[in-house]
Amino acid sequence: MASSSVHRQQSHPTLPPAKLQKLERLSLYYNLPEAAIICPKCGFTLSPKRASEHPGKKHGIARSARHGLKPLLSSLNLPDPDTLAPRPSGS
User: From CA 85, how far away is CA 27, in angstroms rounded?
Assistant: First the structure.
């Protein structure tokens, strides 16, 4: 069987409620089992390198509200969205 560059589920952290709430306040969703940050407003999986900027640039969320987002996202070791396997629905 040929090897694939598509990311398969590995061990990804389960977030404590406070961190999940932080993401929800910023209108971001932590998807599992395919670890990814999704912007429900835009309908896109966000690149780990740009996810901390997205709420401010695209949705006008204040910098003070985004404080601590970058280290939170870095701690998740998120894969590049292009390497994730599509869902059965094709999304």
Answer: 23
The pair of structure tokens assigned to 20 is: 């999940």
Whether this model's pTM surpasses 0.85: no
User: Is 27 inside any structural domain?
Assistant: yes
* Residue 30 domain-assigned (yes or no): yes
Rounded to an integer, what distance in angstroms lies between the CA atom of residue 83 and that of residue 8?
A: 9
Q: What range does the domain containing 73 cover?
A: 17-77
Q: Considering the domain boundaries, does residue 91 fall inside one?
A: no
Q: Does residue 79 contact residue 64 with C-beta atoms inside 8 Å? A: no
Tell me the pLDDT tens digit for each residue of 16-73: 999 999 999 999 999 988 899 999 999 999 999 889 999 999 999 999 999 999 999 9
Cross-strand partners of 31: 36
Angstrom distances, CA of residue 40 to CA of 6, 24, 33, 37:
23, 10, 17, 9
Number of domains in the chain: 1
